[in-house]
Amino acid sequence: MKFNTATLRRPALWGVAALLATGAVGAMAQDAKLLPGKGVEVQPLKSSIQEEAFQTRIVAHALKDLGYDVKPVKEVEYPTAHIAIANGDATYLASHWNPLHANFYKNAGGDAKLFRKGEYSSGALQGYLIDKKTADKYHITNIGQLKDPKLAKLFDTDGDGKADLAGCTPGWGCEEVIEHQLTAYKLRDTVSHKQGTYSALIADVISRYKAGQPVLYYTWTPYWVSGVLVPGKDVVWLEVPFSSQPGENAGASTKLPNGKDYGFQVNKQQIVANKAFVQAHPDAGVLFAEMKVSVNDINAQNLRMNQGEKSSADIDRHVSAWIKANQKTYDGWLADARAAAGK
């Protein structure tokens, strides 16, 4: 009787195939555990503020580490960004200001369509400032004093006799507040709200300050401007006559714990994302809720950009350096996100 040696070998081959298959399945399971977002596209958004690229890319980096296919960041202004995310045309915005963007959030569908949890960056201040020299000389401490045409004229840059306030890019949340307050504080006859690209507006303010001329402008923190025109040294914050906010924030107090009132509520920056996306990918939701970058870190990076380190490669280097300096915390976010994906 003859035996087919191929037949004798076949069980052994089956065993090898089974082992290989088991290994492949195990590798796939491990891959799914470490990269829960593998194959899923993510579209980040940011405003025209170039300095927001830093915090936007930190989020993108973390999502990539979870396996997501993160597309290049698209630039749109805040109202459009909120609507695009709510409609599923984009995934997240890392610079949602709460409560400043309350109207944008509500108009885009609010909690029914959007996700926002945690505090990505806390303690953001905003308000009006003037140069310290003029403030000290004329004893100006409150923007309400600019109802006086003589004081307002000190900040006239175009010869119409009215103070020129370097304000907001059209469409930003601060535009709503400034326009509301000019009416509330009865400043329409003596103050003009100069609008345009904020970077151009503030560059003009800095040039005039360096030339020894009075300046009146709006700004916020974290941002590099207060590292160039330092409050208390070069410029001073102006208080407002009383708290007055538009829309969803009407009636809210803007007083700080120290009793000062600069006219804007203290804000927290949050990551706003498409709610359906987060429901489908709970790991991303945990990541968005846990991530946190300090105001000081954002200020420091923004100042480096202002000093010339503003190329895309520079920003990527800043992101990598920040992650390395905060590696344990960063790894903790990823671990918690992966754990959420496995539930």
Description:
By secondary structure, the protein is an alpha/beta fold. It has two domains: 39-122 and 267-341, Periplasmic binding protein-like II (D-Maltodextrin-Binding Protein, domain 2, 3-Layer(aba) Sandwich), CATH 3.40.190; 126-249, D-Maltodextrin-Binding Protein, domain 2. It contains 14 helices and 13 strands. It has helices at 5-34, 53-65, 78-86, 102-107, 132-138, 149-153, 173-184, 198-210, 225-228, 275-280, 282-290, 295-306, 312-325, 327-341, and strands at 41-42, 44-46, 69-70, 74-75, 92-98, 114-115, 121-124, 126-131, 163-166, 191-194, 216-220, 235-238, 267-274. The strands form four sheets. Strands 2, 4, 5, 6, 7 and 13 form a six-stranded mixed beta sheet that branches. A three-stranded antiparallel beta sheet has the order 11-8-12. Strands 1-3 form a two-stranded parallel ribbon. Helix 7 links the parallel strand 9 and strand 10. Helix 11 (282-290) packs antiparallel against helix 14 (327-341). The chain is elongated. The protein starts with a helix and ends with a helix. 40% of the residues are buried.
Key terms for this structure?
alpha/beta; 45% helix; six-stranded mixed sheet; D-Maltodextrin-Binding Protein, domain 2; 343 residues; three-stranded antiparallel sheet; 13 strands
